């Protein structure tokens, strides 16, 4: 399932610029909005918009084939998408027997690489909620409804950063018949 991509130095520069710019964006949103919940919603909404557009680029670059299970989808997100766009590969445990809940566990989160701690008085800020929106938006574009949330965050003292993905319904298999 793992694939190697040699995209040269430009993507690394783009990733670094995005990470630095992201910190400035979150800082500005904290100035613009009093409540952490409003900042979190804004970042999630922004991420959703990015995800709906990014999925096309991802499918063109990765040449992944159709997935046949939620497990396969989640491993593609971790092993291909995170590798391409953020240069990391999260681990992917399944969280239930129904095989529709998974976690993406990041030992190192590039988005919070230059952040020592959350701003004072911002304990409920979900600094990287943009990622949840991106994943949710991209999944919806391939007709997979999912609830995507942060379960653990190193910036809040947890040992890892963990994103939970719960697929909400089985995709319907459409069978096409030839007209005779």
UniProtKB/TrEMBL annotation:
CDD domains: TRAPPC3_bet3 (cd14942)
PANTHER family: TRAFFICKING PROTEIN PARTICLE COMPLEX SUBUNIT 3
Known function: May play a role in vesicular transport from endoplasmic reticulum to Golgi.
UniProt entry keywords in alphabetical sequence: Endoplasmic reticulum, ER-Golgi transport, Golgi apparatus, Lipoprotein, Palmitate, Transport
Keyword flag Repeat: no
Gene, per the UniProt record: LOC101576170
Taxonomic source organism: Octodon degus
Protein name: Trafficking protein particle complex subunit
GO CC, one annotated term: Golgi apparatus
Similarity remark: Belongs to the TRAPP small subunits family. BET3 subfamily.
InterPro entries the record matches: Bet3 (IPR016721), NO_sig/Golgi_transp_ligand-bd (IPR024096), TRAPP_component (IPR007194)
Domain of life: Eukaryota
GO terms for biological process, alphabetical: Golgi vesicle transport
Record localization: Endoplasmic reticulum; Golgi apparatus, cis-Golgi network
Subunit and partners: Homodimer. Component of the multisubunit TRAPP (transport protein particle) complex, which includes at least TRAPPC2, TRAPPC2L, TRAPPC3, TRAPPC3L, TRAPPC4, TRAPPC5, TRAPPC8, TRAPPC9, TRAPPC10, TRAPPC11 and TRAPPC12.
């Amino acid at each position: 399932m793992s694939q190697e991509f040699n995209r040269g130095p430009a993507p690394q520069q783009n990733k670094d610029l995005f990470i630095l710019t992201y910190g400035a964006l979150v800082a500005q949103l904290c100035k613009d909005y009093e409540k952490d919940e409003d900042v979190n919603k804004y970042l999630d909404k922004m991420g959703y918009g990015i995800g709906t557009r990014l999925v096309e680029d991802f499918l063109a670059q990765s040449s992944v084939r159709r997935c046949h299970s939620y497990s396969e989808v989640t491993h593609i997100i971790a092993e291909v998408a995170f590798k391409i766009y953020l240069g990391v590969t999260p681990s992917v445990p399944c969280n239930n027997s129904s095989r529709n809940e998974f976690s993406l566990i990041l030992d190192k989160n590039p988005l919070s690489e230059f952040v020592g701690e959350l701003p004072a008085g911002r304990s409920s800020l979900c600094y990287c909620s943009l990622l949840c929106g991106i994943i949710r938006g991209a999944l919806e574009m391939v007709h997979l409804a999912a609830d995507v949330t942060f379960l653990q965050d190193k910036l809040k003292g947890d040992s890892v950063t963990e994103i939970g993905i719960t697929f909400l319904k089985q995709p319907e298999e459409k069978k096409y018949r030839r007209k005779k």
